[in-house]
Write a structure and sequence with these properties.
The chain has 21 helices and twelve strands. Strands 3-2-1-4-5-6-7 form a seven-stranded parallel β-sheet, with helices on both faces. The longest helix is centred in the first third of the chain and has 20 residues. Strand 11, helix 17 and strand 12 form a beta-alpha-beta unit. With about 550 residues, it is of the alpha/beta class.
């Protein structure tokens, strides 16, 4: 840019970008496009700003323009791959990976990524089976071959695919075992032997490790357990990640450092530095509330950094990892043959969790809690399985007054893909589907309270959302299989010790039960909500019996 006025405009745009004022920055950058439509520096700034504004499609278009102008722009090529993945454009992403490999513009890790991709939103069961078959075939061939691909974890990290493969009807145990073998084959660091100290104090040194001890499902589910462990028995360390979001719940962990003598430790970005910090703390037990949700922390679980390593149901899927000893669950949610679903030894406690009572200053009145024909499925959209579409369609067909609510994802990507699928499946019934913008915590509670009935997705149901919904006691219809990922709602109901749990055994029963509840007479609906809410406040929330049980289990390991 030769014009000093234009340079000044560009500089103001950059300053606003640095301050997080992305909309203002974008306005300044776009003012310059008329005179500099092919200025790659300007286009790169626009692409990055659109990305930060969650305008993924607009970002994609700008990146394609940059690459067309400069075919050797490796950085923008890789950025486009990232954006296409977030847009869930799998087939286009695979084609671009092929181009990138041939032109030597991308890392060799993408030759693996291409073969293990799985959509966030699938069109149908046929597509689910296609991607599963493709991944299994690739894994079988690669693991049995002599091909060597050695990658550096810090520079060439792959997102753990076990998360994306969890949200359908299939068992993932054998697949996850193969993924473990894949990563051990391509990352030499994961095969190192690590020495750890034996128990050398009266207290048990336990470390809780997660990226999500913040305003996140994991923070909400597990903070009660951590904060209520007996300080006389346990020396507690909390390991956060360098990119853990600072939030109200994160601040609670920091505050407990003073009140409860917890020790908060932030792990750095480099893998080996993480390992060294954990080793220095000489832990007896490592407790991972979730495995597979955080790419960085997933690879830590391949090393034995304590005598006992435990995972629980923050992500309710077996890891397939031999270095994880126990999977902590409950008799309330597992069936008698559940061990077959786990590589870890399954530990079944009598109780579910220590969960703090939800609170809100925006309490609904009785009239707002007593509306008929309001159905809601307030779940993350990648839980909405293609087979669930027909349940939705049948509810709308049989209950002509029904309205069914969902909540949009932040980037509006899953929402748009789901709308397209619904258009094909629901016909004119789609007019009574309503997608809400993202809700604050209090508004989420009130939305659940104002619904007549909540719909648990099939194959992968609700967890934390059920605990929150019981503030008002709105019934959730659930269809469990024999896998924990769709039995958490049932487990919470069992913990509440309620009668007439709205659990069903088929799609047809699901539709009929949901319609029955949504059309209850006003007094009966309010009575039912009060019944469930009272049971939750008496038996589900702040259950000290759970922490007592957990402490006994942990203490008896030594």
């Amino acid at each position: 840019m030769e014009n000093s006025s234009d340079k000044n405009i560009f500089s103001i745009g950059v300053d606003n970008f640095k301050k997080g004022e992305f909309k203002i920055a974008l306005d300044y950058f776009k003012k310059l496009l008329i005179n500099y439509p092919e200025n790659t520096s300007l286009l790169e700034n626009i692409a990055l700003t659109e990305y930060n504004l969650k305008n993924l499609y607009e970002c994609e278009l700008i990146l394609k323009k940059i690459i067309k102008l400069n075919k050797n722009s490796k950085r923008q090529f890789n950025f486009l791959l990232k954006v296409l993945r977030e847009e869930d454009k799998i087939e286009e992403l695979k084609k671009l990976i092929d181009i990138g490999i041939k032109s030597n513009q991308i890392d060799k890790k993408f030759s693996i990524i291409k073969n293990i991709l799985f959509p966030f939103i699938n069109k149908n069961n046929k597509e689910i089976q296609y991607f599963r078959n493709n991944a299994n075939e690739y894994l079988n061939n690669f693991l049995s071959s002599s091909e060597e691909i050695n990658l550096e974890i810090d520079k060439q990290s792959l997102d753990p695919p076990i998360f994306n493969y969890s949200y359908d009807q299939f068992d993932n145990l054998e697949l996850n075992k193969k993924f473990v073998k894949l990563f051990k084959k391509i990352y030499p660091n994961l095969n190192q032997e690590v020495s750890f100290s034996k128990k050398n104090s009266e207290k048990i040194k336990i470390g809780f490790i997660s990226e999500y001890f913040t305003n996140h499902t994991i923070g909400k589910l597990f903070k009660g357990t951590i904060f209520n462990l007996n300080q006389d028995k346990f020396d507690i360390k909390i390991f956060h990640l360098h990119k853990t979001k600072k939030s109200k719940i994160f601040s609670e962990f920091l505050e407990k450092e003073i009140n409860l003598n917890l020790k908060n430790i932030t792990l750095p970005k480099q893998f080996n530095e993480k390992v060294e910090i954990i080793k220095k703390n000489q832990l007896d037990i490592i407790f991972y509330p979730d495995i597979g949700m955080s790419a960085e922390l997933y690879f830590l679980t391949f090393l034995r950094l304590a005598k006992y390593q435990i995972v629980s149901w923050g992500h309710p899927i077996s890891t397939g990892n031999p270095n994880i000893d126990f999977f902590l669950s409950s008799k309330k949610s597992e069936d008698e043959s559940a061990q077959k679903n786990y590589s870890e030894k399954l530990i079944l406690l009598e109780h579910m969790l220590y969960y703090y009572k939800p609170t809100t200053s925006l309490k609904l009145d009785l009239e707002e809690m007593n509306k008929p024909n309001i159905y809601s499925c307030p779940q993350t959209l990648f839980k909405i399985h293609p087979e669930f579409d027909e349940i939705i369609n049948q509810i709308l067909t049989k209950d002509k007054n029904a309205k069914i609510y969902f909540i949009k994802d932040t980037n509006k990507v899953l929402f748009k893909k789901l709308i397209e699928r619904f258009k094909e499946r629901l016909g004119s019934n789609i007019d009574r589907i309503i997608f809400l913008e993202k809700l604050s915590y209090e508004k989420f509670l009130n939305h659940c309270g104002s619904a007549s009935v909540l719909l648990d997705p099939i194959y992968y149901g609700g967890g934390n959302s059920f605990y929150e919904s019981m503030y008002y006691g709105t019934p959730t219809v659930t269809l469990p299989t024999d896998h924990l990922k769709c039995r958490l709602t049932l487990g919470a109901y069992n913990q509440m010790e309620v009668e007439d749990i709205p659990m069903v055994n088929s799609a047809e029963e699901y539709v009929n039960k949901a319609i029955e509840i949504a059309n209850l007479k006003p007094k009966k609906m309010l009575d039912l909500k009060k019944y469930y809410s009272d049971a939750a406040f008496n038996k589900l929330y702040e259950n000290k019996k759970y922490t007592d049980e957990l402490e006994n289990f942990l203490f008896n390991l030594f």
